[in-house]
Write a structure and sequence with these properties.
The protein is α+β, with helices and mostly antiparallel strands. Strands 1-4-5-8 form a four-stranded mixed sheet. Strands 2-3-7-6 form a four-stranded antiparallel sheet, with no helix packed on it. Strands 9-10 form a two-stranded antiparallel ribbon. The relative contact order is 0.12.
């Protein structure tokens, strides 16, 4: 079958600088990430060297202030960079999204002194972050978390276990939500915990059906002591900080989902136009042509929705409902498109010789992380009809 190189996505970008930036991201993705993706995912290898390259290239802090080493880019540009990275390898795209999520609390709620001290290394100094909200007994019900933070003079002592932590055990810093007061959301405070803190450890990584190169692990805090100058925001403000971060993080997941879906579509089109059956390319058959058309339409719709939400965010307008909609639609689209891509390739699609089976396995987790799609529907309905009356 002849090779058919995918055409770059025709992107609507606000500036020439943004176009140059996306070209840089695409070049790194195609030259440094995509060629090794299948082999390294199969081996469960985390590409820390790629994150070092992204940091050196100024791509780990794109949506943050250049005063602290960020890229000063609007979210609509940052998300399209994420999409390019995720299309090459989801471990990298999702990893950048999680790193950005881990930086959000300090960048938006930290004091000037905290930002000056920590953000340059976090945004452009080669460090990698993790975000610690979920626990073994509190996933969707995040406000019921049990990890404790107890005041001890000028320090806090953190004890508990966090679960499903991307970069767990390899991160250089952890943004941790812990209970410093009473029950419920108002008793939660945010902390910035160094990855080498005494008493911090990680369980062996979870054995997952996809994204095997991205470590996901429980993180244990056994009397981890941090000074009060590593508390982010006010005492009791942590849950509000977490929700703010998740609104932005859901857009990152949406962009990653569209990246995976686009990669699957590109692979399906290349296969369909090259595969001969009954004396002609299978792309000539109407049933298959309609599948490809539906896949492309769903991807364009998802991309338009996440960009619309990003532009609301960039304009300083409320975007929580649109972020939930984007996360819901884009991740469901990724699951549908990757499944259809396997079908287009037939038996070959079910083998590891082609990447679409990996895309399908990876797409599934995007419907789960940073709020399941059932939670997204609850968020959307709350905006439409108000809180549940129960």
């Amino acid at each position: 079958m002849p090779d058919r190189a995918p055409q770059p996505v025709d992107r609507q970008l606000p500036t020439d600088e943004a176009r140059d930036l996306i070209s840089l991201v695409r070049d790194i993705a195609q030259r440094e990430i995509a060629p090794k993706a299948a082999e390294e995912e199969g081996a469960g290898h985390f590409p820390r060297e790629v994150f070092g390259l992204l940091s050196e290239s100024g791509l780990l802090g794109l949506p943050y202030d250049s005063e602290y080493g960020g890229g000063d880019q609007p979210y609509e540009v940052y998300l399209q960079a994420l999409e390019e990275l995720a299309a090459a390898r989801l471990t990298v795209g999702l990893g950048v999204s999680v790193h950005s999520l881990a930086c959000h609390a300090l960048a938006n709620y930290g004091t000037k002194e905290q930002q000056v001290e920590h953000l340059p290394a976090m945004l452009g100094g080669g460090l990698l972050g993790a975000y610690c909200l979920s626990e073994p007994s509190s996933g969707s019900d995040a406000a019921s978390l049990r990890t404790k933070a107890v005041r001890d003079g000028d320090d806090w002592v953190i004890t508990g276990t966090k679960a499903w932590i991307t970069h767990g055990g390899i991160a250089d810093f952890y943004t941790v939500l812990a209970r410093s007061g009473g029950e419920g959301p108002r008793g939660i405070t945010a902390f910035l915990v160094p990855g080498d803190a005494e008493g911090l450890s990680a369980a062996p990584p979870e054995k997952k059906m996809g994204m095997k190169g991205s470590p996901t692990a429980q993180v244990h805090f056994d009397g981890v002591r941090v000074s009060d100058d590593r508390r982010i925001g006010d005492e009791g403000q942590g849950f509000a900080i977490a929700l703010s971060a998740l609104d932005s993080g859901r857009l990152g997941i949406a962009a990653c989902a569209i990246g995976v879906a686009q990669a699957a579509l590109d692979e399906a089109v290349a296969y369909a136009t090259g595969r001969q059956q009954f004396g002609r390319p299978i792309s000539d058959f109407q049933g298959l042509r309609f599948m490809l058309a539906d896949m492309a339409t769903q991807i364009e719709a998802g991309r338009a929705l996440y960009l619309a939400a990003a532009r609301l965010r960039d304009a300083g307008r409320p975007f929580s409902k649109q972020a939930a909609m984007a996360k819901l639609l884009c991740t469901d689209t990724a699951m549908k498109v990757t499944t259809d891509a396997v079908q287009v390739l037939g038996g070959y699609g079910y083998t590891a010789d082609f990447p679409v089976e990996r895309y399908m396995r990876e797409a599934k987790v995007l419907q789960i992380v940073e709020g399941t799609n059932q939670i997204q529907r609850m968020v959307i309905a709350r905006h439409l009809a108000g809180p549940d009356s129960r």
